[in-house]
Each structure stands twice: as structure tokens, then as C-alpha cells.
Input
Amino acid sequence: MEQELRAGGQAVIEGVMMRCGKRMAVAVRSADGSISVREERLLPLGDRYRALRLPIIRGAVSLVESLSLGIRALMYSANAQAETTEEELSPREMIGAVAFAVVLAVALFILLPTLLSSVAGLWVGGGLALNLIEGLIRLTVVVGYIAVVGLLPDMERVLEYHGAEHKVIRAWESGSPADIAAARSQSTEHVRCGTSFILMVALVSIAVFSLFGWPSIWGRIGMRLLLLPLVAGLAYELILAAARRSNPVVGALMRPGLWMQKLTTREPDDGQLEVAMTALQRCIRCGQEDCQIDREI
Output
């Protein structure tokens, strides 16, 4: 049976990374105005180890693979903007930046909500209530962080490329002609967006963490970190269900993520749409294989 080919990716510095099947393409607007493209064939972990394609497990694996591809795409786009080789990022510099980002994410989205909810424990009793308070704090931090980052001047272009990515993929999925006019008419929202995934992780974590009571603060921190792959896997399955079928319940769960995409996307110009379309066309050119990829975009 022929499987449906899905496209996804992310915005990078002055460009877009697309993934279709077992192929990735990164298109970047270079300093001289031309579009440079890097193509790469992929071997997903699920193709090497069948157990990694099982539901829930595949969500955690997808997250790891997406982070790895995203880092490579970001490094390529950053170096494409460098005017000299001395300005290019080294692998060590990129690893340092990623390590800092991971530490910051753990501090903001795991440690901070846990510490603040511990203060609430001085007045509120019951593990369920405290887990709910912690979840609401985490949601507030996630939305607040995304809103603040979106206000940074340097992020404006990245958010426009994010919007271009969504528009081009929506045009392709709807069967519209592969041109800028067709993409221009599309919405900047998409159900498989990483923004929706992040919000879904925050929502699912409330339900999952509540099942384990309210242990000591160090027990909570350790448990949150250990359960993160499970939470990511469950969130992935919900996103996948929303993308594959129309379900009122799942659709209602996805709606907040679509609303939040107003913070993470902007209307692109025609040049940005051209870059996104170049990445998608180069990606699907050799990507019509018997595989199906569901990646956040």
C-alpha cells in the first residue's frame, strides 16, 4: 500500500529546512541574494530498529531526531551568512550553544515551575491540586517565554520564515500549484507545528505528573526529567492523530496550539516564500519513497 508522504521542518537563519521521507533539504538566502541549498539523505532510527517505531516510543525518538537535524540545519544557515571563514561557527561553538539552550530549557520549564509550586504548597494541600498549580505555572512560563522571544528584533525574520514554511507546506498538501501565489493565500497555522507540540507537552505533563503524587522536591525534579520521554511520546501521538483525522475532541485540544502560533509566525514576503518553496521542492524531488514521516513544522 502506498503511504502518504508528509513534509515538515523548521525555520533557520534566513532560510528553511524541510524534511520529506528520507530526505532533508536546507535552503538559505545567502548574503549575495542567491539561494544556497544543502541536501542530505537520512536513515531514520525507526528504519534501523523496528521497536523504535512503536507508538509513544516513536514520539521520543522523533524529538531526538528533529533536534539533531535542526542543529545541523541551523549550523549550515549560520555559516551561509558568514562573509568569511573566520566568522563561521565551529562544531564546538554550536555544541556549546545547544548545551546552554538545554540547560536553560530545563531550568525554565522543569526547575522553575517545581520550585514555585513548592511555595504554593505552604498554603495548598493535596498532590492533585499542587500538580495542577505546577502545570499552570509551566504553561504560563512557556507562553510567556515564547511571547518575549517573539518580540526580539533579531527574531522577526526567523518568524517570517516560519510562516513561509507553513504556507508552502499547506499549499503542497492541498494540491495547489507549486508557485508563490498559491502559497501566499495559505494560512500561517499548521497542526503539526513545533509550537503546538510544545504546548501539548505542557498540557500532557499535568495529567502524567499528577499520577505520581507529590514527592519531595528532588524526587519531583528527577521524576519530571525521567518522565519527559513518555510525555513527549504521548504529545506526539495526539499531534499525529490531529494531523491524520478529523476528531472534535482532538481538534479542540489542538486549537490552543494553533492560537499560540500567532506568536511564533509572521506573514512572509515573496522572497521568503521562494526560499521555503525551494527547500520543499528539492526535498520532495527524491523523497517519493514508501515511507511516512510526521515531523513538527
